[in-house]
Each structure stands twice: as C-alpha cells, then as structure tokens.
Amino acid sequence: MTDPDVRRVTVLGAGNMGHGITEVAAMAGYDVTMRDVEADLVADGYEDIEWSLEKLAEKDRLDEPADEILARIDTEVDLETAVADADLVIEAAPERMDLKKEIFADLDEYAPDDALLASNTSSLSITEMASATVRPDQVLGLHFFNPPVKMDLVEVIYGDETSDETAETGYEFVESLGKTPIYVRKDVRGFVVNTVLGPFSAEPAWMVSNGEATVREADAAMVHRRGYPMGPFELADLTGIDVGYHVRKEAGTPIPPIMAEKVEAEELGRKTGKGYYDYEDGDGADYEPGDGEGFDTLRVEARMINEAAYLVGDDVAMPDEIDTGVKLGLGFPEGICRRADKIGLDAVLEKLETLYEETGDDRFAPDDYLVELVESGRTGEDAGAGFHEYDTGGSGPGDYRLLNYELDDDGLLAVELDRPERMNALSGDLLEEIDDLLSAVDVDDVRCVTFEGAGDRAFSAGADIGGFAELSPTDAMDVTPAFETVHDFDRPTIAKIDGFCLGAGLELALACDLRIATERSQFGAPEIGLGLIPGGGGTQRLLRLLGETRAKELVFRGNHIDAERAADWGLANRAVPAEEFDTVVGEFVDDILEGPPVGLKVAKTVMNEGADASLDAALAMESQGFGLLMSTEDVREGTAAFREDREPEFTGK
Ligand code: NAD
Q: CB of 440 closer than 6 A to ligand 1?
C-alpha cells in the first residue's frame, strides 16, 4: 500500500542503491522516476531492475506481473524534469559531500516546495546537506541497506532541522514499502547500525595489530562462539578494507595499523583477490570452528554495547530500535542490547573499566549511560531490567523476544516465529520460548495451536548453527524438550508452512500434528551436509511418518523436496496455492475449534502413544480412551446434537 502523502517518487542515481530503491518503490505501487547523469547509466540501472524483477518472478515473489511494475518506472537525465512533480526525492549519488550539497541546492530550486528531500547516504551529515537548501525541515536521511530489494531495514534519520512531520512521512513511506524503519533521532556519524558495527570490525583489528589475537581466531570466535553471521575480517574483505579505512580517516578516528598496512599494500579484500585472507592462491576465509577458543569476545562485544549505551543515553535511538537495526541491517543473531542484558551490564562495565585502566585508551572509556544503568541496579536480565525490562515471575506466558503469540476467545493460540532476518532459524533461545509458552499457557483456554514463520521466506529454515556451536554436548541434549513439548501438547497443533521448512524447522513441523503448506514451500533435512543428523526428533518422526524408504532418502541425501511431493508422501496434509493458503488453514482450524476438546485430546494421545506401542497395547489404549470419553458432557452433547440434527456445542467437559 502506498503512503497517501507520497505519490510520486524520484530517485537520483541509477547505481547499486538507486536502481534498487527505484525497484522497491515501484513494487510497492509508487510511480517512480529514476534519474542519472547520462542516458547509458539510467539504461543500465533500468536493465538491472528488469533482471532483478525477472529473478523475483521466477521465485514467485512478485504480487503482480513484472511488466506492470516496470510500467510505473520512468527514466530521465534532465534533473529539472525528473523532480518537477516529485513528492519525495531520494538521492543515491556517490558518497561525496560537495556533490551531495550541489544536488540538494539544485533540488531545492527545482522540486516542488512541499516535496521532501531525502539522502541515502551511509555516513555523511544530513544536517550539512540540508544547509544547502532553504527547507532544512523537509530534509531527512533514508538509509537503505544493500541490496534494497532484499534488506528489510531502513534508517530514518533526523538532521538538526528535520521536522517531526517530515520524519514521520519518511517512516510511513518506508513502512508502505513493506520494510522496517527505525528512527535515528540525531544526525550522528554512522547513524545507529554502523555505530554499533564500528567496534565489531575495529576492535579485533586492534587486537591483531597488537599481537593479541590472530585473524582466524577472531573470525572463528565471533562466528562459531557468538553466532555472528560473518567474522570481522571476513566481513572487511567482503565490503573492502579501504571502505572502513576511509570512513575512519574521514571521521578522524584512529586506524588500527593492520588496516592501514592492508590499504597501503593494496590488499583490499575480495575485490583485489587478497585482503586478510587470500582468495586467489589460498582458500579464502578458511578459519575452522575450533580456531576461536582463546579469543576475548567480551572485549569486542563490550565495546559494541558501550556504543549502544551512548546511542540510548544521547536519545539517538531506543534499545528496541537498536536491536531491530542490528538484526535486520547486520544479521546479528540477537539485538546487541538484549545480548548485553544477557551477558550482564556489570560484567560489560567491568571489562571496559579494566581495559581503560590498562591502556588509558579512550575507546574503552565507559559511556555515562552504561555506568548509570549499572549504578541503578539495572544490570540486565537476571536483575529484571537492563536496557530492556524483563518479566520476572508470575505464572502464565511472559513476553517473548523471538516469537509472537495471540490467544483468541475461540481458543486459537497462533504462534509466530519472529526471526524473519534469519529465516526464522530456531536458536536455543527461540526453542526455549516455544517450550515456555506451551508449558505456561492455560491449556483449558486453548483448543488449537498454529505455528507459522514471520516474513515471506520461510516457516523456519533450520537451526541457528552459530547459536548452537557454543553448546556443550550436555547442553545440546536440552535442545529437544521444545519439540517434545509441542508433540505432547494436549491440543491439536498445525504447522502453517509457507517457504522453507528445513532442518530443525522441519522437526518443529513434524512435532506438530498437521502440516499445511503453500505450493512454493520446500522441505528438507540438510543436516547430513554438515556431518550431523537431525537432532530434534527428525530421524524418528520421519521414519514413523513416511516409512523407512522415504525417510532415509530425506535424511541421507539431505536434498529439498517440493510441497507437492511432500503432500504426496504424506509429509504435508495439503499443498495449496498461496492464494488459498489462509482459507484452507482456516477450514482445518475451524473444524478443530468446533470439535470436542477432550475428545481431540484423547484422540491425539492414543494416536501418538499408540504409534509406538504394539497393536494390542495400542488397541487397549484406544478402548480405555473410548471408555473415558463416554462419561463426558461433550459426548452427551455430541449425540444429542446428532439426534436433533443441529451443530454440537462442545464445552470441554
Ligand atoms: P554507485 O556508484 O553504484 O551509484 C551512484 C550513481 O549516481 C552513479 O550511477 C552516478 O552516475 C550517479 N550520479 C552521480 N551524480 C549524480 C547526480 N547529480 N544525479 C543523479 N545521479 C548521479 O553508488 P551506490 O553504491 O549506489 O551509492 C549511492 C549512495 O548510497 C551513496 O551515498 C552511498 O554511501 C549510499 N549507500 C551505499 C550502500 C552500498 O552498499 N553500496 C549502502 C547504503 C547506502
């Protein structure tokens, strides 16, 4: 849906970001003009959009034909024409302040008086750009991440003069694109996401420069022990070591010697074939999980947390916004403020104080807000409050971070796995939350449970490998209770599968009683490719559900099968077109909600337990269950309704 305050969008620049922003705006229904300085450049950008839309169409991820989206895009070289009717201009020209100021001055002259002027800059001052106009209150930052089509996050940045109305329109515009905005309330260098990211890259570089660690130790530790999607050096090689170097230089921030050496040697990362790793003559980022044993991860995280404290203390962003920013913008396994609360802010502060005393280096100087939190007893999750507040006690389900749930008056408990940025990967914490929710909820209030994944890509694409790597073998044995809790829950459970349903995600779906999938969904148990086996009941439940032949095919080959085959094999109850998904799920849910709760509970129990018993024992269980039900009010109601030819009203008694 489009934003009523914005109808026409003009994007300046048809490069990497410009064409991507144009594409997402057109996909959301806006009329967009994309402008670059030469006809060839706009044509190239347009071709990039065509290519990208084609790929999205192949993956069935467009709501309408690509041609209709393309029809909303105009290309232009003349600036005056390009912005003549614009409600919002988004500048995505090269990252140079002199150029940006020139562009903003021109925009001020040519764009309608009420148009909002935004910059997609990653690091330059919005306030300074706005100073080139006579409407600084209508200038803001809209920082999309690369590539805009895939990345969900957009930072909405206030310059010193930006009005709330302008920022709010920017925020709503981002939401209308189906993306997640976060406010950056002050024009600070690095905004929110790159401020937190700074120490992630720089501190390990200092440690390597000082001979306190190696590149492989740092990368292995941050990925395999702390669950980050990439190691700091691996990431620098990908983005270009020179990029981080210039940002620091421009900001006047001290540069770790190893970074400077690499830039001097023109070993800039993947793009030059060599950086911290060798991509031509070597194996690239070839660190192994065990390489990170002795690395001081707290030193790096304490510095990131210190930056987060500064952002909160200075009212630049709130903890939830920072957490959303790093999860969606950087793929962090959890928000940095959440992680800080888990580590304990007192431990973080102590780490910084020790390093500050030892080195006297300002980068370890604890932020005032961090000190304030610790002094006021807000030391994190164990204390009931830190950056965030925690529900400490009381019975019943609490507030969860990684899942959403809603229990309606009809007894439908709808659970949403909420890690779309990780394709709803099941981390230890998420499994714990599922376990806690189903254990804490009052079963008498529930008649049916559905599980689904947030976002538009996956039910759940597997286990969060990074999160599990720190587990000891005994901890790992605790991972499975959540699957058992789902399997044994006293009410029918349905997995609503749209997209990937892999590995641990498949195991969660298998722990449910019923599985309904969209046709585009993919099922698989890829664990074998990691040298592992499914560890959440997958081998056994697949065996019982599909028989040995098909179960072994899935487990041994580790391949995906499509929804149609899954339905054919009995892995899914239905495989339906996307547009019929909600209706079909709704029909299943309605039947269960209207069904007799005790009867369904007994049916589930005898079928689950009977499946593992001898036929004689299973038949005995069944007759016991049958006998038990005969004395219930629901059976009296069911038989009466049958005789009277009306719908029964079961009460669960
Ligand atoms: P790019 O070099 O791929 O594209 C920039 C385009 O702008 C070029 O095609 C250039 O010809 C065009 N251009 C130059 N002057 C112009 C003008 N006056 N009017 C219109 N177009 C003009 O660069 P990019 O990677 O797309 O980056 C653009 C902006 O987005 C920069 O400010 C950058 O910091 C920011 N950004 C980049 C990334 C990223 O990862 N690439 C991520 C977020 C933000």
A: no
